[in-house]
Amino acid sequence: MVNCLRQEPGGNRIRCMFVSNLNGSSATPSLQPGQKSMESVLEGDLVMNVLRDGQWGSFRHQLVSHDLKEELTESAFINVLTRGDLSSLRWISSPQHRSVCISPTVQTCHVYYSSLNFRDIMLATGKLPPDAIPGDMALQQCLLGMEFSGRDPTGQRVMGLLPAKGLATAVEADRRFLWEVPLSWTMEQAASVPVVYATAYYSLVVRGRLRPGETVLIHSGSGGVGQAAIAIALSKNCRVFTTVGSAEKRAYLKERFPQLSAESFANSRDTSFEQHVLLHTKGKGQFLPQVSLTSVKHWRK
Known about the structure:
Residues 84-301 form the Enoyl reductase (ER) domain. This protein is of the alpha+beta class. The protein has nine helices and 15 strands. The chain has helices spanning 2-6, 36-44, 118-124, 187-190, 194-207, 224-235, 247-256, 272-280, 284-287, and strands spanning 16-19, 48-52, 55-57, 76-80, 89-93, 106-114, 147-151, 157-161, 170-174, 178-180, 215-218, 239-244, 265-267, 291-293, 296-299. Helix 5 crosses helix 6 (224-235).
């Protein structure tokens, strides 16, 4: 609580006096200014002052050295030894994957590339607790990695989606979420496709039931999901509006998608995109039903 309060305006003035007796018989003195012990504590001007069984001390975050044994292994995954401490990222040896999996839909794939998604960053930095992930994944050692590219047991180049454990040398992947990598793609390119395109396709086509000729508004078009949504909408001959936050992002999307015109772009830093869309759709966006999924909205004609 004190750490949080210190982040607030004027928080540098906060000092804490905390009684933390371990011995139940220890007397708890009155923490009033003027007492000799209190005067010495105040003179020290420490943020955290802890009184434990008659002695004053403090709490500190100490880096603990991890005396880990290093060994050569063909099966490993990446994880943080201390949640929130990116300097503790390490390769950790894992059990060899079995050649015969429990489920007939699961097969072992060798990972060539694995992408970092925003969820991975949030988990590694400690900003997202493991129990926020659905299912029993919070009990797993490795939670990092949601997509990969590599080879299946037959040697076929594949890319796939995973609930977790993608930052590894090998993964147990569900065949239902594996796709063959096109010959014109590199494995590095393929590793960046599954999450964003599956998200955009599920939002627009499966749930939004996007049809040719409809109009789509895509916020943050230069992001991964945004680019995937633009590509899917254009492939269905839809009219696309997208918001960006800078001239550089606008120029990038114009080069990436030549089908986009100047009127396709609006500002994502304020609400001016509303009037922009209403102007170029002759007010249709204001009155017809909207579907909002992963920063995507579309209108029926």
